[in-house]
Amino acid sequence: MSNNPRSNTSKKLKHHRNQDSDDVEGNPEVWATLDKSFKQVQSVLDRNRALIQQVNENHQSKIPDNMVRNVALIQELNGNISKVVSLYSDMSSDFSSAFRQQHSNGHTRDD
């Protein structure tokens, strides 16, 4: 039956979701900010990869000085993990704020 309330609700939700997606897609500033943030995250993750490799090499060498160096390397890793969490949190907030701002400014499409 075409008057199925579930079907109508589903269509309305899908339309609203598509409309919201179009609003964000049309804002190059939002995407530029996200792109910059993802590049920062990737840089930290690349550094972590190098740190982990160095920690593994130091550990395998079993040289006492290298093992001592691992303490500082692991501390840097922990700090970097916190930095990545913070960057992702900031991205989420920035994206949500931009999305809400567009809606409050009336920049929605009416189809």
Strand segment count: 0
* Residue runs with pLDDT of under 50 for 5 or more positions: 12-22
Mean pLDDT: 81
Separate helix tally: 3
Q: SSE string, helix = H, strand = E?
A: HHH
Pfam families: Elf4
Organism: Hibiscus sabdariffa (roselle)
Protein name: Protein EARLY FLOWERING 4 domain-containing protein
Keywords: Biological rhythms, Nucleus
Q: Can you give me a brief rundown of this structure?
A:
Helices cover 86% and strands 0% of the residues. It is mainly alpha-helical.
How is this structure best described in words?
It comes from Hibiscus sabdariffa. It is found in: Nucleus. Keywords: Biological rhythms, Nucleus. This is Protein EARLY FLOWERING 4 domain-containing protein. Belongs to the EARLY FLOWERING 4 family. With 111 residues, the protein is mainly α. It contains three helices and no strands. α2 packs antiparallel against α3. The longest helix has 41 residues. It is rod-shaped, with a radius of gyration of 23 Å. The chain starts with a helix and ends in a 7-residue tail after the last helix. About 10% of the residues have low confidence.
